[in-house]
Amino acid sequence: MSETVDTALAICGGVAAVGNGLVFLTAGLAKLRNRRVFPGVVANYRLLPEKLIGPVATALPVAEVLIGAALLGGVWLAVVPASALLIAFAAAMAVNIGRGRAHIDCGCGRSELRQPLSRTLVLRNLVLAALLIPALFALPLFGSLEWGLSLAGGLALYLMTLLVNALAALAAGPLAVERNSR
Length: 182
What we know:
The chain is mainly α and 182 residues long. The chain contains 7 helices and no strands. Helix 1 crosses helix 3, helix 2 packs across helix 3 (50-72) and helix 4 packs antiparallel against helix 5 (119-131). The model has no long low-confidence stretch (mean pLDDT 90).
């Protein structure tokens, strides 16, 4: 029985590591591609002193790429900074929503699909962080059947995250705003 629980825990941890790894990797790469505008996105949150905006805007995309690669590579220690960043992002969004500043871009790395802040994005980040908890305890061995299942599940988690992002952006877009004002 314990072996079954360990296997299930490893698969769940692997799914979360792969899914979150892809989220971090693609978000970090998108921010690096748009590094000239990203300091403005960080500044829009109005949470950091001006002196820290540049260094944070420079370091954050690199950290996301490294964390994403580490999660995809099965480095379980990457779970801690990944969870911390997801919780910090959720908190930053929640603070700005509470301040009535939901109109600012979330900075999620999707410049082609600018997204205002929303409770959906806060919840998304908290769920992604919570899903990483099993990865603290077990990850499947590379090349094993459990690893293959984790890879498939992680890809599905990543695609669901993209879907949530797209639906949240559409719900806050001009067509939805126009429809709701009728």
